[in-house]
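Hi support team,

I submitted a single chain yesterday and got back a structure, but I'm not sure I'm reading the token output correctly. Could someone confirm the output below corresponds to the sequence I sent? I've pasted both exactly as they appear in my results page.

Thanks,
R.
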Amino acid sequence: MAFRASVLTLYPEMFPGHLGFSLAGKAMQRGQWSLDAVQIRDFATDKHRTVDDTPAGGGAGMVLKPDVLARAIDTTCQNDIRPRLLMSPRGRPLTQQRVRELAAGDGVVIVCGRFEGVDQRVIEARGLEEVSVGDYVLSGGEPAALIVLDAIIRILPGVMGNDLSGLHESFEGGLLEHPHYTRPQEWEGREIPSILTSGNHGAIEKWRHEEAVRLTRERRPDLFERAEPKKNG
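Hi R., thanks for writing in. Yes, this is the structure output for that exact sequence:
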């Protein structure tokens, strides 16, 4: 069964964006995954197609109305058990483990917030899982949704030319990825580490692991602390 992605947004023209190109685009053409961009505004009932209102209690900005968004979700998710994600800077950080869990399912529904946010009542009533792609604020949930879908689609079976390439990347196994090199052997006075051209595959794997540990310790001590002792060496 093909992976089905539904994105609820005020800007459906932003999709599939970069996912229409390269490996993801080819996989879409082959029918390995599909994308449906749903216009939230279509579910407004007034003549102005209003989707937002002022925050209760006062304050700046506007808030997406729960009744409009709920109708969009209910119509999209009839008899549907796909996870429902809400892109939000206050959500739990997206991890590679969560990406793999989502990729193992039939698909995902992603709600893209705008303005100051989404009425809390619809988040609770429709079981939206708040997800963050980083400790920063975007103009809307659409770029974040594309990031989530990119991470998922690339590890769907058969999307990458070599499925093993997804097993030796940053965050797979709790460590950052080791450095990469390719020909020419010497470039601007810099040589490829000799171990990589030695033909000793055991030594090469050991070097790569040690480099992954070193980089993780230096650049992401938070990841290093969480990694299993056997991975840290």
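A quick pointer for reading it: DSSP finds eight helices and ten strands in the chain. Let us know if anything else looks off.

Best,
Support desk
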